[in-house]
Amino acid sequence: MVTTRLDYTMRRSRKTGGEIITGYYEKIVVTRGITEVWKYEKLNVNSGGYHEGDGEHKEENYKQRQRKRRNTIRQLICTNFDSNSKFITLTFNDSQEHDIKNVQECNAYFRLFILRLKYQYPDLKYVAVIEFQDKNERGAVHYHMVSNLPYVKKTELQKIWGGGFVKINAIDKVDNVGAYVVKYMVADMDDKRLCGEQAYLRSRALEKPLEVTTWRESDNEVFRAVESSIQGKTPTYSAKYVSADAGEILYYQYNDNR
């Protein structure tokens, strides 16, 4: 659930009249209509990121990167898209000249599709994630893409795609578009076929979510303002975790779309 490269080794405290009051390091991420709060028991200020290793360490580092990647995608989508956006699935047929199981070759084809699409829709914004068609044993790459495309006929979009089948899903009743898209990544998050590859593709000019913390002094004023905006509200979701490095982690989500 941690979305920044944080390991934890010490607990924040302050003195009040000689009494030590312990608390949590806190982080708040604000996207479109959704506010997420993380409370961390311990913070390792010396952490420089993921440590290389062999065997078990490399595998765990890969899983950490994938979890971070999934949270990044979810927050980018929640910041830039809403239920008026288009959710599109793009698949390949077996007649393609490139290897439809090869992520690099498929991503190259996808980028050419985006160029063709932007020629007709210059203001296009998108985020696309990769999934493998393993249920039918094809193992082919396909894409789930959320975008700001206006209304476009399925036949027209399929012609621009040119690689196979296109499906357009209605998400007008979805109140958390990022979570809706990211659920398609869950099965493939630890798939070794994505190790070292681009597992998602995105527009360059996407707006970043607002992230503020209690451990960055420059965030203090904005943090207090954001914290004040959720005072008295009931979380729509909460969870509690325990980590060997982080200690106790508390998570709260506030969804104004509900």
Beta-sheet strand percentage?
25-35%
**Low-confidence region ranges:** 1-22, 45-54
Helix content range of the residues, please? 25-40%
**CATH architecture designation of the largest domain:** 2-Layer Sandwich
Q: Give the N-terminus to C-terminus distance in angstroms.
A: 22 Å
Count of DSSP H/I helices = 5
Number of separate domains: 2
Number of strands: 12
Overall pLDDT metric: 81
Shape label: globular
The CATH class of the largest domain, by name, is Alpha Beta
Under CATH, the topology of the largest domain can be stated as Alpha-Beta Plaits
- Reading the helices and strands in chain order gives EEEEHEHEEHEHEEHEE
What's the alpha carbon Rg, rounded to whole Å? Answer: 21 Å
Describe the model.
- There is one protein chain.
- The protein has 258 residues and is of the alpha+beta class.
- It has two domains: 13-77 and 209-255, no CATH class; 79-202, 2-Layer Sandwich (Alpha-Beta Plaits).
- The protein has helices spanning 56-80, 103-120, 154-161, 177-182, 220-229, and strands at residues 13-16, 19-22, 25-30, 34-40, 86-90, 126-133, 140-147, 166-169, 200-202, 210-213, 237-243, 247-255.
- The protein has a five-stranded antiparallel sheet with strand order 10-3-4-12-11, sandwiched between helices. A five-stranded antiparallel sheet has the order 8-5-7-6-9, sandwiched between helices. Strands 1-2 form a two-stranded antiparallel ribbon.
- The two termini are 22 Å apart.
- Residues 1-22 and 45-54 have low confidence and may be disordered.
